[in-house]
Amino acid sequence: MRHRAVRRRSVVWGIGATAGAAAVGGVALSAQASSGTGGSASASGGLVFDREGHTTLTTTVTDANGDDHEVTYRFWKAVPYVAKPVDEKYQSLNVSVPVTIDGKSVDAGNAPILLANAVGGYLPSSVADATGVGGGGMTGVPGGGGSPSPGASAGSGSGSGSGEVQSGGNGMVDARGGMVSLPKLALAAGYVVVEPGARGRTLTNDDGEYYGTAPAAIVDLKAAVRYVRANRGRIPGDTDRIVSSGTSAGGALSSLLGASGDSPLYERYLRELGAADASDAVFAVGAWCPITDLEHADGAYEWNWGTNAAQGTGKVVDQTVSRELVAQFAEYQASLKLRGLNGFGTLTARSYDTYLLKQYMEPSATSYLTALTESDRASYLADHPFITWKNGRASFGWADFLTHVGARKKGAPAFDAFDLSTGENNLFGTGTTGKRHFTPYGLRHDTAGDTGTRLDADLPAKLRLMNPMSFLTGGTPNAHRSRHWWIRLGTKDTDTSHTVSANLAAAAAALGDDVSHLYYWDEGHGANSDPGDFIRWIATVTGHRRRA
Ligand code: DHB
């Protein structure tokens, strides 16, 4: 059973040894201490990466097969990536470049670049205090920095939050600096790793103004890409082979980065920050459980989980609200005119359950069960009689699948809550207003059904800037988008609707892009069960061969 095996080994994941920083090329530790000099933002008004401003670190990386590798790498810390930062703590990036792996020297000069964001919950994310590769994480959450579980970060809906990742008890892993660290795996594979921080929704200045709400985080990630590309030849790695990764809100931003490459719609925000003058397109996208398409997510959520009891209350949500939202989903889904993968017809509210079952859920269960020993499979099937196992394939019905998943994490509406309690309400805050409605439905409910009430005038444009679907659908796909998509999601993830990822995949595939999308059986929010496959996929899509 490939996924589970990887997961177990991932539990022992970690840094085996971090040797003291050594000076390289005559550059002393002070280079690290004066981290801001990694690429002085002010130097001649430019954004020039200081090649010498690194320390050299050694770490032991346990790969996805459980094998240890000793990696010596150059580490540039907290390099500001814009000339006019609003908050340098977040608008800085770390760069890690492998020098030797298992004692053999590697030339990463032309290697793919993994741009790994550590955003969770649309919260601020800083790499400024990292002591090495893979050390970034969210800040601004109760309990401080580090890497809380994805669920804990959500602050969304009326769900309980932190339960999902830990509660499965089957070793689910977190791709954001928890048990799986894509930055470390990428480094041990010989890739260059860039870890950007980004502003997040909770940040306020002394005047109480929110400066990290939408679209700040995506603007920051774009600025980081521009910085890397503008420093081609100074930052090692192939700047035409930037592969973005992220989980949950970070997965949403990763897919948005891929979909919106070079869009002029962000230009004024980038200019305001003094972003480098370069392309912000990325070559490929890795997105785990992307929480995206937010303005349509309430309807999608009810379509998917509307009849499941809610976590915490144990009761179904208001079914009138749920049904109204499902009707919105039906309308939206029809408007997309998307066709399913593998020749499936048009994806509609009526056909989507069959599509999810045939394209994703049954194949997911099949690969899970195939990988089990015969006796483990027999006992799993005995415990889950809703699954029919025949000729090496699993099949089951939608209603049984929903029952199997169990409690939904969020209330209704899941994203634009009537009481403005979600993280997304905060994400769309502005000025000194910390929380706003961002759907007409949420707004009108809150204003006693006054159908004349309109969303604030700035919101439609901001919603567009936050939604990858606006760059993939609607007749004018973005020509500078990523052409390679890796999308992953746990079948038990109820942080959003399963249709969100599936629509993203279908939209990219409809444009002729290369899409790898599968669901991890019985996994919850934040799972990353095949990280080794992702690392290999990067080599495949970029055509990379490690050079000595
Ligand atoms: C995340 C989870 C959510 O449920 C959500 O609404 C937004 C973000 C997250 O884990 O990043």
Major sheet description: 10 strands, mixed
State the share of residues found in helices, binned by percent. 25-40%
Rg: 22 Å
- Estimated structural class: alpha/beta
Number of strands: 14
What separation lies between the terminal Cα atoms? 34 Å
CATH topology of the domain at 3-11 and 50-141 and 161-289 and 536-542: Rossmann fold
How does CATH name the architecture of the domain at 3-11 and 50-141 and 161-289 and 536-542?
Answer: 3-Layer(aba) Sandwich
The CATH superfamily of the domain at 3-11 and 50-141 and 161-289 and 536-542 is known as Alpha/Beta hydrolase fold, catalytic domain
Can you offer a commentary on this structure?
- 33% of the residues lie in helices and 14% in strands.
- The strands form 3 sheets. Strands 1, 2, 3, 4, 5, 8, 9, 10, 13 and 14 form a 10-stranded mixed β-sheet that branches.
- It is α/β, with parallel strands linked by helices and 548 residues long.
- The longest helix is centred in the middle third of the chain and has 20 residues, at 352-371.
- The chain binds 3,4-dihydroxybenzoic acid.
- Residues 120-122, 150, 153-154, 156, 248-249, 291, 423-424, 495 line the site of 3,4-dihydroxybenzoic acid.
Set out the fold topology.
Layout: H1 2-11, H2 30-33, E1 55-62, E2 68-80, E3 92-101, E4 104-105, E5 113-116, E6 125-126, E7 137-138, H3 150-154, H4 163-167, H5 182-188, E8 192-196, H6 216-230, E9 242-247, H7 249-259, H8 267-273, E10 284-288, H9 294-305, H10 319-336, H11 352-371, H12 374-383, E11 388-390, E12 393-395, H13 398-405, H14 423-427, H15 440-446, H16 459-465, H17 469-472, E13 484-490, H18 498-510, E14 514-520, H19 531-542
Parallel strand pairs: 5-8, 5-9, 9-10, 10-13, 13-14
Antiparallel strand pairs: 1-2, 2-3, 3-4, 3-8, 6-7, 11-12
Helix pairs in contact: 9-10
The structure holds 3,4-dihydroxybenzoic acid.
The site of 3,4-dihydroxybenzoic acid has 13 residues, from helix 3 and helix 14.
